[in-house]
């Protein structure tokens, strides 16, 4: 599968995560729920796509080699795209960081493993605000 | 009860005897001599006494007892009751401590006010066969006691132009807790680098300092040595001797400073910031991280299998 996968359906979701297994699985399940996805398996590519394209929802992992999720957030913190981000990470998030995320406008922070129904519900909720 | 417990004419239990000894020691720090302290404690605990009774009870020669009583009266912590013979009594300890503190404050203030006078008088004196002061000789100074070491640290931190490097175990720096030590470091306007053991129990010593300036000193180095380097010009080296008072050596010996500075930089390069986790925590975190990812993969796979009848090789 190429890094860039378009599937035409209701919502357009960008998944930035270095775990290829997870990105493939999430994109499959989103596709089967009639959404379209773009996958970025590294932070630099994710940031590039994020700045060029428009998305309804962005699933962002935090721990990635090279450019990580924290750096991506730092670079786009003043953009309106920040409100479309769902943090989906396996890392521990300190209370301090949770507070910082909330302060910059991130509404949803999920720690893996997340129940798939919950993830779908959060994606739908975020897209409803737009 | 042993003879030792019958102290200065009053019978104390062992526990109280130790407390009295400690009180006597502390009163020395408030400016009393050992015998002045004995008299004050004795009067406070046993009530009014004549000079003769005090001399006898405390085994202090009578003439000296009169001098001591006179000096304690002047300090304002005992008073005499007219009579034949005169009797003496003390003011309560809380008042006495306040009086002694105020006396010390006044003494310091007097010394400060006399600073200009002594300097102007000094300048009127001619030099007599004085050698050149700007010699390249290495200077050494032995500092004894926490206060004199603290004064030197203040001087070093205030006059630093480039950097202050500190290396040492918390055990050494804990001695400066409740002093202005951390304040001096907070006010350092040049590069500050601290290498210390930084344990969970003892890191309160550095409370209020930027953790970005502190690296963790390896356990193998702890207790070995502690020093503070100012620029590349001065070093204060602590001497650890549990038997004696806290001591340090200050020097501007270039070779001494350069040697310790090289050592500091070598250890600094190899050490990690206290904000970073150690390797075992990292491995543990990476393991947890991977485990969560696997759990996530399982959840998605189960969902897909359940809802869309995915078989091993694809979607039906």
Helix count of chain B equals: 11
| Contiguous uncertain segments of 5+ residues of chain B | 1-6
CATH-defined fold name of the largest domain in chain B: Endonuclease, Chain A
Distance from N terminus to C terminus of chain B (CA atoms, Å) equals 95 Å
Got a strand count of chain B?
14
Number of strands of chain A: 5
> What share of the residues of chain A lie within helices?
40-55%
Could you explain how this protein is built, in words?
The complex is a heterodimer of chains A (130) and B (316). Chain A has a single domain (12-128), classed as Response regulator (Rossmann fold, 3-Layer(aba) Sandwich). Chain A is 41% helix and 18% strand. Chain A has five helices and five strands; from the N terminus they run E-H-E-H-E-H-E-H-E-H. Chain A has helices spanning 20-32, 43-52, 69-76, 95-103, 116-128; strands spanning 12-16, 36-40, 57-60, 85-89, 108-111. In chain A, strands 2-1-3-4-5 form a five-stranded parallel sheet, with helices on both faces. The longest helix of chain A has 13 residues, at 20-32. The radius of gyration of chain A is 13 Å and the shape is globular. Chain B has three domains: 3-96, Winged helix-like DNA-binding domain superfamily/Winged helix DNA-binding domain (Arc Repressor Mutant, subunit A, Orthogonal Bundle), CATH 1.10.10.10; 140-270, Endonuclease, Chain A; 280-315. Chain B contains eleven helices and 14 strands. Chain B has a seven-stranded mixed sheet with strand order 6-12-11-10-7-8-9, with helices on both faces. Chain B has a three-stranded antiparallel sheet with strand order 3-5-4. In chain B, a hairpin with a 7-residue loop joins strand 11 and strand 12 (247-251). Chain B is flat and about 115 Å long. The N and C termini of chain B lie far apart (95 Å). Mean pLDDT of chain B is 82; it is low at 1-6. The interface between A and B is medium-sized, with 19 and 18 residues.
């Amino acid at each position: 599968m190429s890094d860039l996968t378009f599937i035409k359906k209701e919502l357009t979701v960008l998944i930035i995560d270095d775990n290829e297994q997870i990105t493939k699985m999430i994109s499959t399940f989103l596709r089967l729920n009639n959404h379209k996805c773009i996958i970025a398996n590294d932070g630099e590519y994710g940031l590039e796509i994020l700045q060029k394209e428009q998305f309804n929802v962005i699933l962002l992992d935090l721990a990635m080699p090279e450019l990580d999720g924290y750096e991506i957030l730092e670079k786009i913190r003043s953009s309106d795209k920040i409100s479309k981000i769902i943090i989906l990470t396996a890392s521990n998030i300190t209370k301090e960081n949770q507070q910082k995320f909330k302060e910059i406008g991130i509404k949803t922070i999920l720690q893996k493993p997340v129940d798939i129904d919950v993830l779908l519900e959060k994606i739908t909720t975020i897209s409803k605000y737009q | 009860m042993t003879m030792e417990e019958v102290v200065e004419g009053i019978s104390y239990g062992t526990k109280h005897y130790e407390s009295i000894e400690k009180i006597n020691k502390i009163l020395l720090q408030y400016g009393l001599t050992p015998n002045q302290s004995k008299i004050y404690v004795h009067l406070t605990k046993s009530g009014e006494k004549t000079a003769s009774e005090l001399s006898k009870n405390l085994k202090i020669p009578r003439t000296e007892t009169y001098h001591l009583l006179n000096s304690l009266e002047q300090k304002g912590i005992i008073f005499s009751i007219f009579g034949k013979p005169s009797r003496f009594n003390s003011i309560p300890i809380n008042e006495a401590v306040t009086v002694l503190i105020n006396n010390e404050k006044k003494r310091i203030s007097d010394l400060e006010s006399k600073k200009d006078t002594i300097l102007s008088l000094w300048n009127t004196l001619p030099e007599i066969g004085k050698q050149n002061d700007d010699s390249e000789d290495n200077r050494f100074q032995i500092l004894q006691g926490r206060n004199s070491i603290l004064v030197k640290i203040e001087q070093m931190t205030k006059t630093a132009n480039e950097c202050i490097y500190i290396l040492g175990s918390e055990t050494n720096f804990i001695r400066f807790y409740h002093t202005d030590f951390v304040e001096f470091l907070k006010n350092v306007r040049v590069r500050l680098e601290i290498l210390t053991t930084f344990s969970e129990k003892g890191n309160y010593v550095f409370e209020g300092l930027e953790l970005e300036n502190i690296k963790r000193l390896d356990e193998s180095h702890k207790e070995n040595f502690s020093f503070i380097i100012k620029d590349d010009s001065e070093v204060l080296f602590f001497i650890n001797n549990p038997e004696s008072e806290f001591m340090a050596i200050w020097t501007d010996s270039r070779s001494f400073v350069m040697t310790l500075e090289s050592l500091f930089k070598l250890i600094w390069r190899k050490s990690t910031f206290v904000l970073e986790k150690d390797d075992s925590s990292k491995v543990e975190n990476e393991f947890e991280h991977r485990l969560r990812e696997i759990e996530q993969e399982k959840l998605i796979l189960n969902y897909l299998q359940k809802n869309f009848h995915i078989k091993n090789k694809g979607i039906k």
